[in-house]
Amino acid sequence: MSGPTQCFGPRGVRRGAALTLVFAGVLTAGAAAGALPRDDHGPAPLTTRSVASAVNSDEVTAAAARAVADGKSGKEAAEKVVSRSGDRWGAVYDDRQYAEFQQALDGAYTGVGISARRAANGRVEVARVQPGSPAERAGIEPGDLLRTVDGRRVDRRPVAEVVALLRGDRTEAAEGSTVVLGIERGAVARTATLRRARLATEAVTIRRIGADRPGPDAVLIEVESFTKGSGGKVRDAVRSAPTDAGVLLDLRGNSGGLVTEAVTAASAFLDGGLVATYDVHGEQRALYAQPGGDTSRPLVVLVDGGTMSAAELLTGALQDRGRAVTVGSRTFGKGSVQMPSELPGGGVAELTVGHYRTPAGRGVDGRGITPDLAVGSRAEQRAETVLSGLGTGP
Fold first, then answer.
1. What is the rounded distance in angstroms from the CA atom of residue 53 to the CA atom of residue 64?
2. What's the sign of the alpha-carbon dihedral 210, 212, 214, 216?
3. Buried (b) or exposed (e) across 17-42, using 16+ Cβ within 10 A?
4. 114/236 same-domain check
5. What's the chain's Rg over C-alpha atoms?
């Protein structure tokens, strides 16, 4: 049975044709800077009742059609209906925004190459700088504090708002447009003018760990998001790892992405079997791993509050089926399914149609996944120790 596979572009969306576990615009609004979800997102669950009574695509389409017939914006009309519906994850995109969303899932975006996060002192700092990006060429480094974006102070703004400023508005966010950043490093403050560029994301990073310690090495596989091809990269990394090496799968800060890629990643560690179940308007469906995965290699999965959506689906599958030890902190709790539908006059509405569950039947939405070993600081070091205790690793 077909399942959540991909996002179609605005002109290719057929109602009911595609599903994706969309993550509240995190990729759409935040891919350019790799932002975490908004700090004020509380894990308020959508119940079965609220989903059943939430707006459906016919209502949104009808509202947009009436607005277009009256010479008004169909997107704005659709947004009003969705905002009143109580659908926490419902969203409306214009054609450009949805095209950017698809490009982000393809692993490309227009931006400056900065990943931002909230620092311990409450300010916004640079978490990562993409190699070869405008940010790297401007000398920006991880740990630098972002003070201003185009003259606007960002110290206490939610990270998602900072990301929006970095991206620019509809007319400013094009390739080649500029953004002026106020940067602070220690006692030195400066400004840097960056020109936005088309960049390719590195969703999967692979490196050896423990080479300086006794015993066999381990392989660290960091998955930032499930863009196209990321599941295959995880599978290939596992297949090419030394036979005596364990795997540390780092899903911290992974905001989700394409469900098919998460299922492919699960298939790297499972020999077939159930990965998750989900419902669409009450109709139950299932997702299965491909046979032939490595079921014996020691595996530890790192998670935190930024682990969302498709990343939670993967975590739940590996945990429920006893394939991995999970280490870190409780995941975000985004377990609802959205379906895209094209709007009259252009644009796309993503509306909640159901929820997914882990192989053991656990609901994730609003609850998250509790790791086997709850760890605050030094989570990676603790995970390496657990991996070593499983029979291999550093």
1. 20
2. positive
3. ebbbbbbbbbbbbbbbbbbbbbeebe
4. no
5. 21
The span from the CA of 109 to the CA of 133, in Å, is 12
Q: Give me the half-sphere count of Cα atoms (radius 13 Å) on the Cβ side of residue 120.
A: 2
Which domain covers residue 179, as residue numbers?
108-200
Please say whether the beta carbons of 277 and 331 come within 8 A: no
3-state secondary structure of 50: helix
pTM: 0.71
- Say if residue 321 is in the same domain as residue 209: yes
Evaluate whether residue 59 is within a structural domain: no
Rounded CA-CA distance 181/193 in Å is 6
Beta strands in 256-378, from DSSP E residues, in sequence order? 274-280, 283-288, 299-303, 325-328, 336-342, 348-357, 373-374
CA-CA distance, 147 to 139, in Å (whole number)? 16
Distance of alpha carbon 131 from alpha carbon 114, whole angstroms: 10
CATH number where 378 lies: 3.90.226.10
CB 55 within 8 A of CB 77: no
- Whether 194 and 114 share a structural domain: yes
Token pair for 212: 């300086």
Q: What average pLDDT does this structure show over 302-306?
A: 91
Q: Are residues 377 and 251 in the same domain?
A: yes
Question: What digits encode the pLDDT tens for the residues 16-72?
Answer: 223 333 322 222 222 222 222 222 222 222 222 233 334 578 899 999 999 999 999
DSSP 97: H
DSSP notation for 256-287: -B-HHHHHHHHHTT-SS-EEEEEEETTEEEEE
Is 168's pLDDT higher than 90?
no
Quick one: which of 238, 265, 251 has its CA closest to 311? 251
To the nearest whole number, what is the mean pLDDT of the chain? 80
Last residue of a domain, one of 183, 200, 217: 200
